[in-house]
Design brief:
Elements: E1 2-11, H1 15-27, E2 31-34, H2 63-77, E3 80-82, E4 85-90, E5 95-100, E6 103-114, E7 118-120, E8 133-135, H3 136-145, E9 153-157, H4 161-172, E10 176-182, H5 191-199, E11 204-206, E12 208-214, E13 221-226, E14 239-241, E15 245-248, E16 252-254, H6 257-262, E17 266-269, E18 274-277, E19 290-292, H7 302-319, H8 325-342, H9 345-370
Parallel strand pairs: 1-2, 1-6, 2-3, 6-19, 8-15, 9-10, 9-15, 10-11
Antiparallel strand pairs: 4-5, 5-6, 7-16, 12-13, 13-14, 17-18
Helix pairs in contact: 1-2, 1-7, 3-4, 4-5, 7-8
């Protein structure tokens, strides 16, 4: 087994990981970013829509352009990026097992930033294993990255922002979205995204779910039905659609597998997709020297992931002595101001409070360790 030694190792070359790499490398740290994909950038290069919000958050700029700009900054910072490489183990001594190019490596780092993102949830129903049933993110990757249309007639399950945005992008790519189906009583995503879908003539069935998908060896049709307040199917409400593809946009789940290996503390926060690692205001987990950033800390969106990456990169670099206390404080204040702006308003309140809960839980955890109290 070959050995690689670095000061800061970052797992994940998405929006959070690249932002962390830029901040840490710019401060002077030796940084290595590891990603299992053949290309860096993560979700940003799938996002062809324009971001909105403030100038600081690239309002009016398409996601893939933001990704290109971020990647160029990382390359100029001196950070090294190891692609097509799988991190298969993360040990408590801050070492990790990596397979790259068929070679097994032991990577040892003083600090580790885990920015592994999130994975799509799935939903089981009769016919859910037929070819043509896929996650909305997979369909988005096929269309926007690989330039392959996943199907010609598509039904989308889920009306959150992912379901709405991907539906519109599939229509832009030439597919027909026959309907969007939502189990809840109302549309889950932003009105600006839902409005574009409705203006395009796509019906949105709230209070409905998929009853079954059918076809001989592939998707040929789907049957939906209304549900009551207990999510039971209402007999006689069934509707059928001729489709060749069914996309599932039913939520995301943080990819925390590597963090569980380290023994760091977790909390269960449904608003963030399930179990998430506790972290403090520096994005450091209960395991000293291991930081987190992006959707692995709780599912949000790309702008928040980039800011959390910035925060983790600054704090990790400071812990190694590359930034003074005053330099760190100034950068952290600027980053937190931008994060608070993102998490303000109706849609951000729940996420801001959930993040605060993680920090408070971490404080209690550290106090308990100091007092040697079992928690």
């Amino acid at each position: 087994m070959k050995e690689i030694v670095t000061e800061i190792a970052i797992i994940g070359a998405g929006s959070a990981g690249l932002s962390a790499a830029y901040q840490a490398a710019s401060a002077g740290a030796d940084v290595l970013v590891i990603d299992e994909n053949k290309l860096p950038g993560g979700q940003l290069f799938k996002q062809i829509h324009k971001f909105f919000g403030s100038k600081e958050h690239k309002a009016g700029t398409r996601g893939y352009i933001i990704g290109q700009e971020l990647l160029e900054k990382v390359q100029n910072s001196g950070a090294k990026v190891l692609l097509d490489s799988l991190v298969y183990g993360l040990l408590p001594d801050n070492s990790m097992g990596v397979i790259s190019g068929g070679v097994n490596y032991s990577v040892k780092a003083k600090k580790i930033i885990v920015a592994t993102g999130a994975k799509e949830n799935y939903m089981a129903f009769p016919g859910s294993t037929l070819p043509g049933v896929m996650g909305a993110g997979a369909a988005q990757t096929m269309a926007n990255v690989n330039r392959v249309l996943p199907g010609e007639k598509i039904l989308m399950l889920g009306s959150g922002n992912v379901g709405l945005i991907v539906s519109y992008q599939l229509m832009q790519a030439g597919a027909e979205v026959v309907a969007i189906v939502e189990g809840g009583p109302k549309i889950g995503g932003y009105g600006v995204h839902a409005g574009k879908i409705r203006r395009a003539g796509v019906p949105i069935y709230t209070g409905h779910t998929i009853k079954r998908v059918y076809g001989e060896g592939k998707v040929e049709g789907v049957e939906i039905a209304a549900v009551d307040e207990k999510w039971n199917i209402i007999s006689g409400s069934e509707k059928n659609f001729d489709v060749d593809t069914v996309c599932l946009a039913v939520g995301l789940n943080p990819m925390t597998e590597l963090l569980w290996m380290t023994g760091c503390e977790f909390d269960f926060i449904p608003a963030f997709g399930g179990h998430v690692p506790l972290h403090d205001k520096n994005m450091e987990t209960s395991k000293e020297g291991i930081y987190v950033a992006g959707d692995v800390t709780g599912v949000e969106e790309a702008s928040s992931a980039m800011e959390e990456g910035n925060l983790a990169g600054v704090c990790a670099a400071h812990s190694l002595g590359y930034l003074t206390d005053d330099e760190k404080a100034k950068l952290v204040e600027e980053i937190n101001d931008r994060l608070n702006t993102l998490r303000s308003g109706y849609f951000g309140e729940r996420r801001r409070m959930s993040k605060q809960k993680q920090i408070e839980d971490m404080k209690l955890y550290k106090e308990a360790l100091l007092e040697k109290v079992e928690i």
